[in-house]
Amino acid sequence: MKEIKDSEFEQLMLEVIEGKKSRVKLAEELQTDWRTLNKKIQLLSMTNPELYKKFVEKYPYKPKEITAIPLKTMLVEFLKTGIRMQDLANKYGIGERTLRRKIDALKKSDDPKDRELHDICKQTAYNRAHGKKMNFELQRKIDELEIQEEEIKQDDKEKRRQQLLQIEKNYNELCRIMSKEKAAEAMGYTYNRVYKLLDELYCMEIQNNAIKGFKEDIKVNPKEINQVLDEKITKPTTETEKEK
Predict the structure, then answer these.
(1) Residue 124 confidence (pLDDT)
(2) DSSP code at position 113
(3) What is the pTM of this model?
(4) Which residues does 5 contact at the CB level (< 8 Å), separation at least 6?
């Protein structure tokens, strides 16, 4: 990674936050990959909390591998509460484009109720964008909508977090009786895969702390930030490892 002063990096981050520069472009300029850049960005939570908070607000964490999107629940919320599409997407941790594509896909559904829901959403979005009032028939359809029982009610971000916390717990327990590599294998993963999953968890936790008030919640020496992830992952030391 290209060596620059902290003040220069902070200025570059301001440009990213203000939309003057993309994160991809920044990585190219600093001659680094996204993972290394991300660790540098996480360091801001210690050295410049206010700037880091602005970054988190601009680019909130979006969990990987979302297993399910409660689309119909989301659309009922969109129609009944007046929430903006972008805010709805952010709330459930998915991209706005992804949400719009899934809405468009309802138009091709074999279920007539899905096609009707698509039409209601499109008409409602159009009316809101142009400041038009809902006609009686459209409002009646919206009022009659109910959340489907089979829809997922748990927030996807929290669901993903719980999955990762369970992986962390299982992994650390196994590391008490076997090597890190063997522990990962016993869980059906490679060591590198476990590292990536726990890295995802720690990034999520850091951002959660940032939103809650990271100045008080995170007490880590800035010089040690680059060791935080590795230390938490490699903390369990076993007899098996010592024998290597």
Answers:
(1) 93
(2) H
(3) 0.38
(4) none
